[in-house]
């Protein structure tokens, strides 16, 4: 069995916001971090509050903003040292020239600088300022000091600035910051590869107003799509009807029926390196769809259903097939049924989970049993975002092994 060492993604992020026009972008950053499963505690400097109100961050983060070293009530709830310990990662975005200077000096003259001094967590800084302030020798020396101490710098970007000038000093886009923080752990494992994934349920129409569907929410598939993107893949997500936002940077194709999903998947996999079938595709579809609403005329109504195309098996059967991964939703004998599906559909890997009214579907957490020919790995119950990242790390490892198998040494012939 191959063990994959995956450092866990930062779950508790302390986001320091300092005074600059880019503070408004930090609001978007909170959302980007939370959609990756992180808890975010915002700490604002006095300057930051001149640009955005604490209420904005409180609403987006779901936690009261901390802004004062001397706030007795807040200190009683969680003292600043506890807060510094709570953080698994400290991110300062935007970091103004003044804040960078204070960090470089090791000052502790407000809550944010005190926390940065007191934390043992890695510190990331996303500078944002006017281009002359950025290129000023004083700022450059401060930045070099921070970098030498192991502080990780994000950006700044070049472009048009709020002051009307053009040059280096814009804060990196929130999505780029979030992606870089979370990508560090997946380490470009799928860099340069095209991954196609299906997710969500399908809907098989009975008449113009009714359909047959299932309980799939699409959450697991969407989390896997986001994790694959963070691992550096170009991701095409073929989705059945779900109420989920498309992960940033992912190309989404919406479909309804199994037949439409079949066509969309086959159109997308022509140049794909990997295919993951995470959708709960209908196995049977009504033999015919009534053109008018079916009236309740008789006591008993019989529906005639016919087999829907098996998308996963058809992709695995392609002559030039991508590395093909399936999911298996089982109510009993999970491993036995999943192994059987792995072999029957000729898959490279399968992720099995136990399903039921109170399991897996439409929940925030899940557990998976990952199987491949000759190997298995159990991923215990955790948030779908975390689970998806561990799952993608395994997929990437198995993909590399399948494409570039480690060379087995030929036995040395005995000399007799
Ligand atoms: N799948 C598919 N097309 C179908 C049915 C299933 O591509 N028409 C894929 C799913 O996306 C999943 C895998 O097949 O990756 C297994 O789905 P599951 O419903 O567990 O298994 P089935 O093949 O439908 O077998 P059974 O219903 O007998 O358990």
Describe the model:
With 416 residues, this protein is an alpha/beta fold. Helix content is 34%, strand content 24%. The chain has 14 helices and 19 strands. The strands form 5 sheets. The chain has an 8-stranded mixed β-sheet, with helices on both faces. α10 packs across α14 (384-403). The longest helix has 20 residues, at 384-403. It is elongated, with a radius of gyration of 26 Å. It starts with 11 loop residues before the first strand and ends in a 13-residue tail after the last helix. Cytidine-5'-triphosphate binds next to α12 and β16.
Question: Which properties best describe this structure?
Answer:
binds cytidine-5'-triphosphate, 2 domains, elongated, Rossmann fold, alpha/beta, 5-stranded parallel beta sheet, 14 helices, single chain, disordered C terminus, disordered N terminus, 8-stranded mixed beta sheet, 416 residues, 24% strand, 34% helix
The total of beta strands comes to 19
CATH architecture of the largest domain: 3-Layer(aba) Sandwich
* Beta-strand residue percentage: 15-25%
Query: How does the overall form come out from the CA principal axes?
Result: elongated
Give the N-to-C terminal Cα separation.
Answer: 35 Å
**Rg from Cα:** 26 Å
Count up the helices.
Answer: 14
Task: Tell me briefly what this model is.
The protein is built from 14 helices and 19 strands. It has 416 residues and is α/β, with parallel strands linked by helices.
Give the arrangement of secondary structure elements.
Elements: E1 12-17, H1 23-35, E2 39-44, H2 54-61, H3 72-77, H4 80-86, E3 89-95, H5 97-105, H6 111-118, E4 123-127, H7 131-135, H8 137-148, E5 152-153, E6 157-160, E7 166-170, H9 174-186, E8 194-199, E9 204-207, E10 210-212, H10 219-230, E11 234-239, E12 251-254, H11 258-268, E13 274-277, E14 284-286, E15 305-307, H12 311-316, E16 323-330, H13 334-344, E17 349-354, E18 365-372, E19 375-383, H14 384-403
Parallel strand pairs: 1-2, 1-3, 3-4, 4-5, 8-11, 8-13, 11-12, 13-16, 16-17
Antiparallel strand pairs: 6-7, 9-10, 14-15, 17-18, 18-19
Helix pairs in contact: 1-2, 1-9, 4-6, 5-8, 10-14
Bound molecules: cytidine-5'-triphosphate (CTP).
Residues 258, 277, 279, 281, 283, 308, 310-312, 326-329, 341 line the site of cytidine-5'-triphosphate.
